[in-house]
Amino acid sequence: EVQLVESGGGLVKPGGSLRLSCAASGFTFDSYSMNWVRQAPGRGLEWVSSISSGSSYIYYADSVKGRFTISRDNAMNSLYLQMNSLRAEDTAVYYCARDGRPVSIAASRAYGMDVWGQGTTVTVSS
Amino acid sequence: QSVLTQPPSASGTPGQRVTISCSGSSSNIGSNTVNWYQQLPGTAPKLLIYSNNRRPSGVPDRFSGSKSGTSGSLAISGLQSEDEADYYCAAWDDSLNGVVFGGGTKLTVL
């Protein structure tokens, strides 16, 4: 079964750090570009970051650029999101999601994000 | 304020056809494909339509998508109670170098 399982969420104070993980199974992880998408309470979806299969291409939303770092370990079938200098507005459910085809990151944009994890909750509050 | 614009709400009765619009610009929908996601209450999003009008395996053919210029559209025919959910459009934006989502449309089945 194709599956993504996020972990690492929790309560953190403003200015603090957190590292999210996403464990992939059931597919050839190192062939797919991966994404982080978040959803603040009662709000819509917001794309956070994308990384190509071999980590050569990385993109960030302006709202997290310079504070968040996406990475992956293909040997461990895992995706990560290091979050530093956290703010109250970073409070959200964070989802990892797979691009829809095992092709280049530019080509895979056309196929959407076809597999999503269940999400992990990050709360930034004093 | 989302880069892609969707109506906040839509509604219909069982069996009806409903459409949801998604308005963008030349840097996103105008030059890239539109994808649609369905999010049932309390669950993760699910890919509903990709590449403007293609359905992933398992998505009923009641769901269809289209694109014209800088706008996309999702149509749901034969509306069912289980279609009550939030629907989001998304596209790559060449200027922002990232994925942009619409604000979401809450569909109510009356």
| Tertiary shape of chain B | globular
Number of helices of chain B: 0
Extended strand count of chain A: 11
In this structure, how is the largest beta sheet of chain B organized? 6 strands, mixed
Structural class of the secondary elements of chain B? mainly beta
Largest sheet of chain A: 7 strands, mixed
The run of helices and strands of chain B is EEEEEEEEE
Description of the structure:
The complex is a heterodimer of chains A (126) and B (110). The model of chain A has no long low-confidence stretch (mean pLDDT 96). Chain A starts with a strand and ends with a strand. With 126 residues, chain A is mainly beta. In chain A, strand 7 (68-73) and strand 8 form a beta hairpin. Chain A has one helix spanning 105-108, and strands at residues 3-7, 10-12, 18-25, 34-39, 45-51, 58-60, 68-73, 78-83, 92-99, 113-116, 120-124. Chain A contains one helix and eleven strands; from the N terminus they run E-E-E-E-E-E-E-E-E-H-E-E. By secondary structure, chain B is mainly β. Chain B has strands at residues 9-12, 18-23, 35-39, 46-49, 63-68, 71-76, 85-93, 98-101, 105-109. In chain B, strands 1, 3, 4, 7, 8 and 9 form a six-stranded mixed sheet that branches. Chain B has a three-stranded antiparallel sheet with strand order 2-6-5, with no helix packed on it. The model of chain B has no long low-confidence stretch (mean pLDDT 97). Chains A and B meet through strand 5 and strand 10 of A and strand 3, strand 4, strand 7 and strand 8 of B.
